[in-house]
Amino acid sequence: MEQQHIADQNPTAVNNEIQANNEESQETKRKQEEHPLPLMALNHVSRVCKNVKDSVHFYTKVLGFVLIERPQSFDFEGAWLFNYGVGIHLMQSEEDDDSVGVRGSDKDHLDPMDNHISFQCEDMEAMEERLKELGVKYMRRTLEEEEKGETIEQLFFNDPDGFMIEICNCENLKLVPAGSSGKIRLPAGRHNPPLELNDEK
After folding, report:
1. Domain membership flag for residue 145
2. Which pTM value belongs to this model?
3. What is the domain extent for residue 115?
4. Is 49 within a domain?
5. pLDDT at 52 over 90
6. Are residues 106 and 53 in the same domain?
7. 106 vs 62, 98, 100, 101, 128, CA distance in Å?
8. Which of 25, 37, 55, 132 lies 20 to 30 Å from 124, alpha-carbon distance?
9. Residues annotated catalytic, as ranges
10. How far apart are CA 81 and CA 94, in angstroms?
């Protein structure tokens, strides 16, 4: 019905309507560029875990995170870690062990289609060697984008609670917007929180 209605209109009126829609779309895009959302970067990922100490050991030894101080006002057990511009906040579960993470034998299951967090890596071979040395079970996958000549290497493994982690060289993938709305903003160095370095003795 709508197509018939447009066809019955005067050609000049149709052209004017199309032009008005285009101008409205351009105006919306202009406003988005002039007033972008005041977001800067991913700050942290939170995990409820069965044992905070075990998880701290994993994230510091396997992934090189650094344990940092938490606000003293917190009245629950947990730990904060930070590195690579992102934090991981661990919270001790108040429930029994079976209610946290991935249950039973599924804890060792690795499926790239499951929920996971991903870290970009500049030396996949070195990271794989580290996993081997620490005895971490992992899956390696290679994706070939033949038309673009791009190769993506991925490593998947689980933390102590069965939450999956990916390591990849995803910087090889060019970011190409799939639509005309929005504008990609890369994080600036100023998004990092103030850092107090320990004095080396």
Report:
1. yes
2. 0.74
3. 102-176
4. yes
5. yes
6. no
7. 21, 12, 12, 10, 22
8. 55
9. 166
10. 20
